[in-house]
Please model this.
Amino acid sequence: MIHPYPSGGQGPFEPQRPEPPSAILTAVKFMYAGAVLSALSLIATVLSTSKLRAAIRRSDPTLSASGLHTAQTAAVTIAVLVAVVGTGLWISMARENRAGKNWARITASVIFGLDTAAVVADFTRPDPLLNRLFSVVIWLIGLTVIVLLWRRESSVYYSADGVP
Model:
């Protein structure tokens, strides 16, 4: 008697991704902390507009009232956009890196490079001390994340089978 091929309704075997190593889990926690600090920097920016105005005035005392207003509005608008986008990127990178997506590790590294350039540029522009402090602390969090994402155990996790 010939038995038909068993059809248990199960598809082909798909390898399971291992649990993320501690370096990845720690990096994810730092990424969420970066998101929180980015959101807080947004609040700090909005609350420190008068200090920003004074910093702009000190950097260029020849600005007219309308020029000063325009510079202040532009600086606040850019800072708000950067904080909103930054918060979203932190959250997105945390999720995708925890899932072991190697493209997310590379993207996070590129974003960190761009942030490094932005932090250096921040020191050439007038900015309240609190805003600079947020920028530097967020940059340090990014540095910590990048170091953790590129550790050997992290690389093994990213190269594990089972993820497209």
About this structure: The chain has one domain: 22-158. Helices lie at 22-47, 49-59, 65-98, 102-122, 129-149, 152-158.
